[in-house]
Amino acid sequence: MSLLGNLKFKGSDATQMLRNQHRITVGIAEGFIANEVKLEDFVGHLDYTISVHFRLEEEILIPVLSPLLRQYLEFEEPIRIIRGEHVSIKSLYSTLYRSVSFESEDTTATSEEILNKSGLIAKTLLQHIFKEENGLFGMADLYIPEQQREKIQSDLERKNEEYHQAYISAHGMVK
Ligand SMILES: [Fe+2]
Ligand SMILES: [Fe+2]
Fold it and tell me: 155 alpha carbon to ligand 2 midpoint, in Å?
C-alpha cells in the first residue's frame, strides 16, 4: 500500500507545513523502497529531515500540544511515542552513518547490509509519519485553539527557514 496515495496530508494551519514536508519524505522513502530513489539521495533526505523536520516538531508543535493533551486527555502517551520514535530513527541513522562512512576500509558492513539497514529506516520513518498524520497531528488540529494556529504556523515557517539555512551552511546543499 502506498502512503503517498492514501494519506491526505491536509490539516489546520498549525500542522499544514509539517504535513507538506511529510508528503515529500513519504515520496522519497517509498521511492527508495521501490528502488527508484538512490541510497545517497534517501540518506541525504533523512539527514535533512532529522535536522529540520524532527526539530520543528520537537521544538514548536510538541511544546504547544503537550499541555493541551494533559488538560484534555490527562495523558501524554501519544507524545511519548512520537518522541521515542524520533530517538529510534536517529539512532538507526547513526549506526547506518557509521557503516557508510567506514565503507571503504576495515568495514564489517557490506553494501547489502547498508541497503537492508536503510530499508528498515525507510519503513520505520513511513510508519512514524503514518502515525503522526493519523494520530498526533489530528489531535493537534483538534485541540490547538483556532487563535493559536496562525502563530504556530508563523513560528514553524520562521524556524524552518532558520534550520534550513543552518543545515545548508553546515552541509553545503540539500538533497
Ligand atoms: Fe516526527
Ligand atoms: Fe513528522
Answer: 16
**pLDDT tens digits along 93-130:** 999 888 776 555 555 678 888 999 999 999 999 999 99
> What is the three-class DSSP state of 78?
helix
Whole-number Å distance, alpha carbon 172 to ligand 2 midpoint, is 24
CA distance 90 to 72: 30
Domains and CATH numbers, the chain: 12-170 (1.20.120.520)
Q: What is the pTM of this model?
A: 0.92
Beta-carbon-side half-sphere exposure of residue 31 (alpha carbons within 13 Å):
15
CA of residue 93 to ligand 2 center, whole Å? 16
Dihedrals φ, ψ of 76, to 5°?
Answer: -120, 25
Give the dihedral sign, CA 4/8/175/40. negative
145 CA distance to ligand 2 middle (Å): 20
Residues lower than pLDDT 50 in the chain: none
The ligand whose atoms approach the alpha carbon of 7 most closely is 2
Separation of 107 CA from ligand 2 center, angstroms? 33
